[in-house]
Design goal:
Protein name: PAS domain-containing protein
Number of strands: 5
CATH superfamily of the domain at 16-129: PAS domain
CATH class of the domain at 16-129: Alpha Beta
CATH architecture of the domain at 16-129: 2-Layer Sandwich
Order of helices and strands: EEHHHHEEEHH
Organism: Rhizobium oryzicola
Oligomer: single chain
Domain PAS: 21-80
Strand content: 15-25%
InterPro entries: PAS, PAS-like_dom_sf, PAS_fold_3
Length: 183
């Protein structure tokens, strides 16, 4: 399995440590994410790059927030709607981080839920950008991730739809030589 190397997220006014991208392959039940998410959740970056079961990641979410997060993720998988949750992550040292998680579930060529991708913004109290700009950043990063996944999985219909969406947002679309295997 290839390691997780997410597409770039526009910097906005966040530090690189405050923004991370993740991808959950529903069929394999593996969550892959970049170094900022590994640090946030207190997981070794190499381990999360290879992938961990979603249950392992959910255990790091504050027990009071876990049901709402799980429900939001389930709803996006079944409905296809974006989810957006604010919750707390408990690090191995007991410290608490407040995060905003925004994600979307993409479907395969048979219209079955396939991959849930998203962006996590850490330390909400330190953010000075509006939610609209945060969601715009998520949308671009998520579409870029899904586009690369569709190309690598040879899902031409999904790839074309995502190319159109990216172009409408004024974003460049990676050529096949630029695309990387994500999940």
């Amino acid at each position: 399995m290839a390691s997780f190397d997410p597409p770039s997220v526009r910097s906005l006014s966040f530090t690189p440590e405050q923004v991370g991208v993740f991808c959950w392959d529903l069929r394999k039940d593996l969550v892959q994410a970049d170094a900022p998410i590994a640090e946030l959740f207190g997981v070794e970056p190499e381990e999360l790059s290879r992938g961990l079961p979603i249950a392992a990641m959910l255990l790091r979410i504050h027990e009071e927030d876990r049901p709402d997060v799980a429900r939001s993720m389930h709803e996006t998988i079944t409905s296809g709607q974006q989810y957006c949750t604010e919750h707390r992550v408990i690090r191995p040292d007991g410290s608490v981080r407040h995060i905003l998680s925004i994600g979307h579930c993409f479907r395969d060529e048979n219209d079955l839920p396939s991959v849930l991708t998203g962006v996590i913004f850490a330390d909400l109290g330190e953010m000075n950008e509006g939610r609209e700009e945060i969601e715009s950043t998520w949308r671009i990063a998520s579409y870029r991730t899904a586009h690369a996944l569709a190309r690598n999985a040879n899902h031409a219909r999904v790839e074309m739809a995502l190319e159109e969406a990216l172009l409408e947002m004024g974003e460049e679309v990676a050529t096949s030589s630029q695309a990387r295997v994500l999940c």
